[in-house]
Write a structure and sequence with these properties.
Blueprint (H helix, E strand, L loop, with lengths): L1 H27 L1 H5 L5 H33 L1 H19 L5 H4 L2 H29 L7 H5 L1 H23 L2 H6 L4 H17 L6 H9 L6 H40 L5 H29 L1 H24 L3 H19 L2 H8 L5 H18 L1 H8 L7 H20 L5 H8 L6 H10 L1
């Protein structure tokens, strides 16, 4: 399990590195380089617009790779998604700016960001199912949380490299070529990830489906026809986690550097400190999910997010590094209380024959609802001289929406369900089928 979980974590970290390095660049340099005729605010909004395209592509990627995962196995998804995202990220680092090729530059950026999102949309489902379907029932939350540590590691790697370049290069050097280096490094990381995943074994549950001929012929159609309500609820439930994460890591970086005059290096360090603690806590929170259930932790996480958004904005507004770090950390603690357990929660909601598609599409729908629009909406709402209370209100509303969706979802931890209801379905497959029907 440790070898499988490590391979899953490493690949997820690399894929999210690719995705996050774009978000950091969008907050810092892409506006003036690719949209120079826009005002500073409009340029930032346009850069965040290309950032959001990646989220719109992610559900499409989960449909494409989810079909592959449900029809041909989880393992091919791990390799293909990593290769696609890595190649697209390296290509972003090679795109000439608007000054060199005009409108072709932002169009190329848009296309490559779409391909990044397509690859990442397939990555999560394959990586999580690799660990969740191999893990023993009593420790499924713990092992399935390893891929959930990947986003934090990818973020720290992407921003650590950007922070180093930002601290060692002049503003002119960073804007000229320094911002491209993290994109080029993605090629080396992709090769390393493919090497780590080359010997990963197919999961026992998929092998059983293949041997008995119970694979779904059209998993997306089956999910949409039979479980559309579950799909919408999971997407809505996860939207708060995405919104809070990207508000704390992407929007706050642009707001603090552009509007508050905070040094770019200082703000990156504040955000990285908060994300590092979030990543450290992920497996610990997942163990609580194994003991007490997935749903209670998700409800607690949403409540924390709803209560913390106004303090988050107030602390960010101070411009003080320690207080800004505390503001980001509070929001991320709420977010990790939810997302530490969803690696086990979402697969348990769907039957094995449609699990790769259902879990991945639900997860990435949450990204569209919460992640794609948040930097754009927050930047627009913060266009004023006073504290951006509109941003806090927006994030609180999303947290309350997620709280309502989680309240309508069932508990899925097999151990907890059996304790509460007595003897249930006799096999793991039957238990998953029952959760899907519910």
């Amino acid at each position: 399990m440790l070898r499988l979980a490590s391979a899953s974590l490493a690949g997820t970290a690399i894929e999210f590195y690719d995705f996050f390095v774009y978000g950091t660049a969008a907050a810092l340099v892409l506006g003036p380089l690719f949209f120079p005729s826009f005002s500073p605010l409009a340029g930032t909004l346009a850069a965040f617009g290309t950032f959001g395209i990646g989220f719109l592509a992610r559900p499409l990627g989960s449909v494409l790779f989810g079909h592959i995962g449900d029809r041909h196995g989880r393992r091919p998804v791990l390799l293909a998604s990593l290769l696609l995202t890595g190649l697209a990220t390296v290509a972003v680092g090679c795109v000439p700016t608007y000054a060199s090729i005009g409108m072709a530059a932002p169009l190329l950026l848009l296309m490559l960001r779409f391909l990044q999102g397509l690859g990442l949309g397939g990555e999560w489902g394959g990586a999580v199912l690799l660990t969740a379907e191999h893990a023993p029932e009593q420790q499924r939350g713990l092992w399935a949380s390893f891929p959930q540590v990947g986003p934090a590691m990818g973020f720290l790697l992407a921003n650590g490299m950007t922070l180093t370049l930002s601290a060692t290069l002049t503003d002119g050097q960073f804007a000229s070529w320094g911002w491209r280096v993290p994109f080029w490094a993605a090629g080396v990381l992709a090769v390393a990830g493919l090497w780590l995943r080359r010997s990963v074994e197919e999961t026992p549950q998929f092998r059983a489906l293949a041997e008995t001929g119970r694979r779904s012929d059209a998993p997306l159609s089956e999910v949409v026809r039979g479980h559309w309500r579950l799909l919408l609820l999971t997407g809505g439930a996860l939207s708060a986690g995405y919104a809070v994460f990207y508000a704390a890591t992407t929007w706050s970086l642009a707001y603090a550097t552009d509007r508050l005059g905070v040094n770019r290096t200082v703000m990156l360090a504040c955000i990285m400190a908060a994300v590092a603690l979030k990543g450290t806590l992920t497996p610990l929170v997942a163990v609580l999910g194994d003991r007490h259930g997935r749903r209670p932790l998700c409800l607690i996480g949403c409540t924390i997010c709803a209560l913390w958004m106004f303090p988050f904005v107030a602390l960010l507004r101070t411009g003080d590094p320690l207080l800004m770090t505390l503001g980001c950390l509070g929001g991320l603690l709420g977010m990790v209380t939810m997302f530490a357990v969803v690696g086990a929660y979402l697969p348990e909601l769907y039957a094995p024959r449609i699990r790769c598609t259902g879990a991945a599409v639900g997860y990435n729908l949450g990204g569209v609802l919460g992640g794609a629009l948040t930097p754009i909406v927050a930047t627009a709402l913060a266009d004023g001289s006073g504290p951006p209370w509109g941003v806090a209100l927006y994030l609180t509303a999303i947290a309350l929406l997620s709280l309502a969706c989680f309240a309508l979802l069932p508990e899925t931890n097999p151990t907890v369900v059996r304790t509460r209801t007595g003897p249930g379905p006799g096999t793991e497959t039957e238990a998953a089928e029952a959760a899907t029907s519910a």
